[in-house]
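Quick log. Single chain, no ligands specified.
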Amino acid sequence: MKAIDTLLDLGDRYAEKSTWKDFALTKFCLFSMGAAIGMYIPREHRAKALCGCAAVFAATYIPLMAKLYRIATENRE
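-> predicted structure:
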């Protein structure tokens, strides 16, 4: 598991040195890759793929927005 720990440590260091712009570029990159892959899904399987994507979106978006809400409403000292 040393390789995984090394990759996770690299991810932490990258996040520390990144700005919102870096994360926005990452999101655009992943979105465009996903859209390109989605173009190759056969028509008869697209509905299943959409359901899976919607489930992943909901499972990730809700916690992210909950964290954003907590940060936005906390008192600044």
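The chain has two domains: 1-40, 43-77.
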